[in-house]
Amino acid sequence: xxSLIEHAADxxxxxxxxxxxxxxSVAVALLxxxxxxxxxxxxxxxxxxxxxxxxSIAIGTIVxxxxxxxxxxx
Length: 74
What we know:
Blueprint: H1 2-6, H2 15-38, H3 42-45, H4 47-70
Helix pairs in contact: 2-4
């Protein structure tokens, strides 16, 4: 984040910190969504719905972090 702020006036941001901030924010949002789902009353009542959804979100979190690590060109 510090690197992005340092280069705020540049025409383009440095690729590495930009990808890490983007992918980490997506991963944190997905983890927060998973935590929020566990607080629902239906969480224990409908495991056939929430267990596959939780696995999918976990895979999405891993994919987001892998994309940040990979840093594809825009």
